[in-house]
Specification:
Elements (H helix, E strand, L loop, with lengths): L2 E3 H11 L4 E4 L6 H9 L3 E4 L3 H15 L2 E6 L2 H5 L1 H9 L4 E7 L2 H5 L15 H7 L4 E4 L3 H18 L3 E6 L6 E3 L16 H17 L3 E5 L2 H4 L3 H11 L3 E3 L14 E4 L7 H8 L3 E5 L20 E4 L4 E3 L2 E3 L3 H13 L28 H11 L5 E4 L3 H5 L10 E4 L8 H15 L5 E6 H7 L2 H7 L5 E6 L4 H6 L17 H5 L5 E6 L2 H9 L9 E7 L7 H16 L1
Helix pairs in contact: 1-8, 3-5, 3-16, 9-13, 11-13, 14-21, 16-18
InterPro entries: DHS-like_NAD/FAD-binding_dom, PDC/IPDC-like, THDP-binding, Thiamin_PyroP_enz_cen_dom, Thiamin_PyroP_enz_TPP-bd_dom, TPP_enzyme_TPP-bd, TPP_PDC_IPDC, TPP_PYR_PDC_IPDC-like
Catalytic activity: a 2-oxocarboxylate + H(+) = an aldehyde + CO2
EC number: 4.1.1.1
Length: 561
């Protein structure tokens, strides 16, 4: 062992985390660092702006485990803040590397471009502290390696973004590489055995006494890495299992125990009845946010919930410092030896109900989502935009082994198209075959430039654009015909030619159910031979039933707040 450039040390650690592609926008304070990225054999995926880059790093991380974004100091990093905030909110581990002016310039308080003109260099760092689990600006070669390791270990522990500022001069100074002898810490510390045994006994007693237990799988199951434990829990108990909107896709919907999506007032009535009448709910990775709970309309008593979280478990409202990764595994192992389980419970509900009839004319939301569900295949990647698509997708039956998500909590429109860039790159690196983006017209107008990256990276996604002439969800909440809920009309079928004039692509405009049916039934359309875009024209006031119910709840909540 000996010495490495500070920039090289950082990239060695990034490669240790399995990162093969880095996203971002070049800028003068990090151009030389980008040379080191290329020399390390990491692919540089430049994006049209930093916001798309942040979304792309988020999407990459959700598939790969960790994503990386590189921006320049000031305008570059602040342009990315929205995307980093979303990753922080939804526990997505993104490393945000910011190229800084030299340490010498900072110490001299030089009035440089990209600053606020005050000779201060910590303004933007202070902003990022609010949306990062750990931050550092590397100013000393003696501590640079240990600071990098501290921040990256925090990334792995908390599963949230971190911020690393790297000045132009420090990047190319030497630091000791002995730290690389110690791998980054990827495992959570074990639980307190005494407390864990006590709580396992408590949960076991509750399971034995419960008359109508259910399992609800929420977004934390994916974000905190317990899908294997959850799958085993479902098998060993035999309990009915439901997902929340954030948890959709985490459970095999072909499983006989699967009962559907529970989202408070936005649920199917029979699903709502089963969950809310349960006397014991094993809730995995709860996200009690407004959109994930039907605007706080979940009606399950806290006393009946065992809530498993990353760093703690709550039973009947009492909080215990027990990490669910370890506790769930111990619970599954203990239940395997119990003669009272599994308890096969007949479902008193169905996940989706009767398939609606195909409309004669215009495509309806009630028909669209079940139909799109039938189009999906095992092992597909599906990224769904916030808004109408987010709610409607809950009515889409899913095949087994599907990877899907939507930005349920932060809800930044335009996220899905940018995230699709990183997600498809990671998906392709891991041998994935077919990827699908479902977005709306209003959302797409925020990050349409990302389509250029989808085309040039050759990941060949299928893009469904729901054209309902503006912000339908907002219309239903407030201002049905208000001008602020309208957007300029675009020719969406022309976008692929605009952003990839030399790249093979296909675009389709469908206005009727028959047209969409014929397209989706065409085997060649479903093959990922090139990027394909389908503009689906919908009525501007039509919306999924769940959207209407939740929209009313939102309006009432806003009036009472």
């Amino acid at each position: 062992m000996g010495e490495l450039l500070v920039g090289e040390y950082l990239l060695k650690r990034i490669q240790e985390l399995g990162v093969k592609s880095i996203f971002g926008v070049p800028g003068d304070y990090e151009l030389a660092f980008l040379d080191l990225i290329l020399q390390a054999g990491i692919d540089w995926k430049g994006t049209p702006n930093e916001l798309v880059g942040a979304y792309a790093a988020d999407g990459y991380a959700r598939i790969n485990g960790v994503g990386v974004l590189v921006t320049t100091f000031g305008p570059g990093e602040t342009s990315a803040l929205c995307g980093i905030a979303g990753a922080y909110t939804e526990f997505v581990p993104v490393i945000h590397i910011v190229g800084y002016p030299s340490v010498k310039a900072q110490r001299e308080h030089a009035i440089l471009h990209h600053t606020l003109g005050e000779g201060k260099f910590n303004n933007y760092h202070e902003m990022s502290k609010q949306i990062s689990c750990a931050t550092t600006v590397l100013e000393d070669t003696a501590t640079a390696a240990s600071e990098i390791d501290r921040v990256l270990n925090a990334l792995l522990l908390h599963g949230q973004p971190v911020y690393i500022g790297i000045p132009t001069d420090i990047t190319f100074e030497k630091t000791r590489d002995t730290g690389l002898l110690v791998p980054l810490s990827k495992m959570l510390d074990p639980n307190n055995q005494g407390l864990e045994s006590k709580i396992l006994g408590d949960i076991g007693s509750r399971l034995e006494n419960a008359k109508s237990p259910v399992i609800v799988v929420d977004g934390g199951a994916t974000r905190h890495g317990v899908l294997s434990e959850v799958s085993d829990l479902i098998t060993v108990t035999g309990f009915p299992v439901f997902t929340t909107p954030m948890g959709k896709g985490t459970v095999d919907e072909k499983c006989a125990q699967y009962g559907g999506t529970y989202v408070g007032v936005g649920s199917r009535d029979d699903v709502k009845d089963v969950v809310e009448s349960s006397d014991l709910v094993l809730w995995i990775g709860m996200y009690p946010s407004d959109m994930n709970t039907g605007e706080f309309t979940v009606r399950v008593s806290k006393g009946d919930i065992v809530n498993f979280e990353r760093f703690y478990t709550m039973i009947g409202g009492q909080k215990y410092p027990l990490k669910m990764k370890h506790l769930l595994r111990k619970l599954v192992d203990s239940l395997k030896s119990e003669s009272v389980l599994p308890r096969q419970t007949k479902l008193a509900c169905v996940p989706y109900g009767q398939e609606p009839e195909k409309p004669d004319g215009v495509i309806t939301q009630s028909w669209l989502w079940p139909r799109l569900g039938k189009f999906l295949l095992e092992d597909d990647l599906v990224v769904v935009e916030t808004g109408t698509a987010q709610s409607g997708f809950n009515a889409s039956p899913l095949p087994s082994h599907i990877t899907t998500w939507t930005q349920e909590i932060f809800g930044s429109i335009g996220y899905a198209t940018g995230a699709m860039v990183g997600a498809t790159v990671a998906f392709k690196e891991k041998g994935g075959r077919r990827s699908i983006l479902i977005t709306g017209d209003g959302s797409l107008q925020l990050t349409a430039q990302a389509i250029a990256d989808l085309l040039r990276h050759g990941t060949n996604p299928i893009i469904f654009v729901l054209n309902n002439d503006g912000y339908t969800v907002e219309r239903l909440i407030h201002g049905v015909e208000a001008p602020y809920n309208s957007i300029p009309p675009w020719k969406y079928t022309g976008l692929l030619d605009v952003f990839g004039p030399q790249t093979k692509s296909e675009s389709y405009l469908v206005r009727s159910a028959n047209e969409l049916d014929s397209l989706l039934d065409n085997p060649s359309f479903g093959e990922p031979t090139c990027t394909k875009l389908v503009e689906i024209v919908l009525d501007k006031l039509d919306a999924p039933e769940a959207t209407r119910k939740i929209g009313k709840a939102i309006e009432q909540f806003n009036k009472s707040a």
